[in-house]
Each structure stands twice: as C-alpha cells, then as structure tokens.
Specification:
247 residues; five-stranded mixed β-sheet; alpha/beta
Length: 247
C-alpha cells in the first residue's frame, strides 16, 4: 500500500473533468425532438394542464438531461475511483464482465462494482449483482482455487449503516472512498477540484441548452399546435403512442 498524494488526484480531476462537460454538451447536440417526444409521457402534461409549448419542451428535456448526466458522471467517477485505487493498491479495471475494479490487499482479492448512490436498483437488479459476483468468483478461482475473494458494491455517495449484505459488502460515501484509498478525508478532498472551471463550462452548456430549447419550442409549435395556438394533444399522443400500421 502506498500513501495517496492528493496532488495526484487533483491533477487527474482537473485534467479529466472537461470530458464530463464535453459529453454533457454532446448529449444536447445529438438530441432530436421526435426522439424526445417518443420517450416521454404526454398524459402527464395533460394532467398538469400544460398550455404553452416551452414548459412542455423544458419538462421533457430536463428529465432526459438529468438522467443522461447521472449516467455520464457515474462513468466518470468510476474512472476516478480506479485511478485512485491504482495509485494506492495497484488496482485495475477488471476484465470480468460487470465488475469494475479489482485489487489485492492483505492477501484478499477485492472485486468491486461501482454505483453512484445507495438506492441504485430494485430487488431484481440486486439479485443480478449477486449473480455477477458469484460468476466473477468462479472465474477467478479457475486459476487459483485457494484465492480469498470479497465482493463489494461501492457507492460514490450516501450512507449504509449495515454494510454486510451476506453475499457482498456495500460501502457508501466516505466509507467507499476510504476503502479504495486508505484516506478517510478523500470524500471531501475531491470537492474543490471537481469544481475546476465549472462556471465557464456551465456557461457553455447553458448556451447550447438555450439554443436547443428555442429550436425545439419553435418546431413543437409548428408540428403540434393548432392554428389557434392551442396544443394539439390528440396529434401528439397519436405520434407518441399510436400503433404503426404495416405497409
């Protein structure tokens, strides 16, 4: 085990956080109104008595952006965790399906699946996690039957006061970052570098966001509003949910 140098972490974050922001903007550039309208529930906006185009567009777009950003940032945090663990324990990105990180400590091989927060899945998804851990253990023991293996579900934020789940351990927030780094303060040490040039990056994102909202609002008015200016909910619902007839 090596002592983590927080300067290495800071340099990594500042050098790589731009990739997260670039993917945020790219997700906007790739967005199409028709695809957006197909993925969202139009009945919700009828029930909420939405009467103007822009709030509908913003509602659809914001829900999708939130989901996309969480996925993008989860992947980014996974890379950060692997980088930190490699510096301290010589860990590595696992080559086993659905396992994110492997490292050895005190004669134990740890296999880790990294999630964003503690409430990431339903019972079926947790069962799959357990199955993935069991498969990974079998794979590793084909070359070393005496290998001691501990499975861990690591969560980048949150708290779980009962980490021992029987088939695996669940470490969240401070406990997770400390587990992979040996540094109990790491979970707060990464706050400042994560904000590196965040203001400038967000201005660029907001500019792209505003342009997209204006473009989609105009397109929505043309395609899904009546001549009176009223939203044509029947047309929108038919586009969203109508059966496609075979030609």
């Amino acid at each position: 085990m090596k002592t983590l140098d927080i300067k290495d972490v800071t340099q990594y974050i500042e050098a790589n956080i731009g990739k997260f922001h670039e993917k945020r903007i790219k997700s906007l550039d790739n967005l199409k109104l028709d695809n957006l309208l197909k993925r969202k529930n139009p009945y919700l906006f009828v029930a909420k008595y939405a009467t103007t185009s822009e709030p509908i567009i913003r509602g659809f777009v914001d829900a999708l952006i939130s989901s996309n950003e969480e996925t993008i940032f989860d992947d980014w945090l996974e890379g950060l965790a692997i980088f930190i663990n490699e510096k301290v324990y010589g860990g590595r990105k696992s080559g086993i399906s659905n396992i994110d990180l492997e490292f050895d400590k005190d004669g134990v091989r740890y296999i880790i699946t990294i999630k964003s927060g503690p409430n990431w899945g339903n019972s079926s998804q947790v069962k799959k996690l357990i199955a993935d851990f069991k498969t990974a253990k079998k794979t590793l023991r084909t070359s070393n039957s005496q290998l001691m293996i501990i499975a861990v579900n690591g969560c980048c934020y949150g708290i779980d006061n009962n980490p021992d789940k029987g088939d695996y351990f669940k470490y969240c927030g401070q406990e997770f970052w400390s587990f992979i780094s040996g540094n109990e303060n790491l979970y707060t040490d990464i706050i400042e570098p994560l904000g590196h040039k965040a203001s400038e990056r967000n201005e660029e994102f907001q500019k792209s966001y505003a342009m997209m909202i204006n473009k989609f609002t105009n397109q929505f008015f043309v395609d899904y509003c009546k001549e009176t200016g009223e939203i044509d909910w029947e047309k929108l619902v038919k586009f969203n949910s109508g059966m496609t007839k075979n030609k």
